[in-house]
């Protein structure tokens, strides 16, 4: 974290010069340059205060305005500090692809950090999905495009995640689990056909019967539990928390 | 045996088994003898509040408006409160304020005389315990002797600035007032027969070891 902070501070004055070297954004007006510079400074202040999410927002906007590689570099470092390894890796990739004339020292650092971040990206490997079908896959609520490549690879960061895969006329497949930095987890996706006709009636009846049994058991338990409790002798009763 | 009775029998048997050993609550029957209304005093009601210091109800803070009102009479009387808990790890505080208004809401009740009781570890899961305490007089005063060992007389009220002001047996000074302190071995219950100490030689309370009938109860039993 301290290393990241030092680099961010070091680059504080860079965007104007870097922006001038950058051609993708075209010529910036004085107002645009001033705005980009203010966003960059706001991002650096957010880093100093440990407000990494705010820093990301500022650097993203500063880069969108100026195309300054220093803003993109700092954006990547902020992703890195937040543990968003996939975003950090992609930002470093963009930095080195879009800015071939990057300062050599900066490029060396970026390459090293990129390698580290790439090694920390966790991967969910979805196997046994028929190459001829295109299930609808949702990972942490975000749609995962299926281009037909097998196995389907889902990149993410460490933490708890959930995946839902849906295929017509089949029950949804659900996976929930926790991934560590750099972990590669293989998940066998199995789609079971939705029962039809008499099977459905039987399952519904079974479910209703089971629910009634469980409800009755709970009710009996409550009655018995209540019967078992000591009863106050006085009508003046205080219940302690 | 009727069919109704037969149908209830299994439930009754199971309940009886559970009642013997599976109760998950504990009850302290707190019995407080209230003093008669003093002649010439404005105190007409006792406002009894019971709570746990483990939940923040210390004597130095206001306890809100949860309490029971007992009109004072010409003679002393017992009032009993069943304190129900589900955790054995709590103490119990009781405060009795002697007020002009039944819920101590009169302006003059802001400085109402107050008696305090602290009970250490009175709850044992599945057991009923008892504490009996006597408040012999309303703690208002003209001189120190009127406080009966529960503080010194200051501006007509019995108060304290240290334990030395609380000379009554087991009394300690807390938040400016003397507190009648009931230690865990004075919490009655779980032994048959007379005793003046409810802890065994190894220091464990009898309620941690035995099950027995209550010793005595000063109030009429409720349904």
User: Can you identify the CATH class of the largest domain in chain A?
Assistant: Mainly Alpha
Compute the separation of the termini of chain A in Å: 44 Å
Number of strands of chain B: 11
With strands numbered from the N-terminus, the spatial order across the biggest sheet of chain A is 3-2-5-6
CATH superfamily of the largest domain in chain A: Tetratricopeptide repeat domain
The level of helicity of chain A is 40-55%
Which oligomeric form is depicted? heterodimer
What's the number of structural domains of chain A? 2
Series of secondary-structure elements of chain B, N-terminal to C-terminal:
HEEEEEEEEEEE
**Helix count, DSSP H or I runs of 4 or more residues of chain A:** 8
Q: What is the residue-averaged pLDDT of chain B?
A: 84
Largest sheet, spatial ordering of strands of chain B? 3-2-5-6-11-10
Order of helices and strands of chain A: HHHHHHHEEEEEEEHE
Largest sheet of chain B: 6 strands, mixed
Radius of gyration of chain B: 20 Å
Largest sheet descriptor of chain A: 4 strands, antiparallel
What is the typical, i.e. mean, pLDDT of chain A? 81
Plain-language structure description:
- The complex is a heterodimer of chains A (241) and B (223).
- Helices cover 52% and strands 17% of the residues of chain A.
- With 241 residues, chain A is α+β, with helices and mostly antiparallel strands.
- Chain A folds into two domains: 2-119, Serine Threonine Protein Phosphatase 5, Tetratricopeptide repeat; 122-228, Carboxypeptidase-like, regulatory domain (Immunoglobulin-like).
- In chain A, the strands form two sheets. In chain A, strands 3-2-5-6 form a four-stranded antiparallel β-sheet, with no helix packed on it. In chain A, strands 4-1-7 form a three-stranded mixed β-sheet, with no helix packed on it.
- In chain A, helix 3 packs antiparallel against helix 4 and helix 5 runs antiparallel to helix 6.
- The longest helix of chain A is centred in the last third of the chain and has 31 residues, at 198-228.
- The relative contact order of chain A is 0.08.
- Chain B is mainly beta and 223 residues long.
- Chain B contains one helix and eleven strands.
- Chain B is globular.
- The longest helix of chain B has 19 residues, at 3-21.
- The chains are: A alpha+beta (241), B mainly beta (223).
- Chain A binds chain B through residues 223-225, 227-241, and chain B through 11, 14-15, 18-19, 22-27, 29, 48, 50-52, 55, 66, 68, 79-87, 90, 92, 123, 126-128, 217, 219, 221-222.
- Strand 8 of chain A pairs parallel with strand 4 (77-85) of chain B, so a sheet runs across the interface.
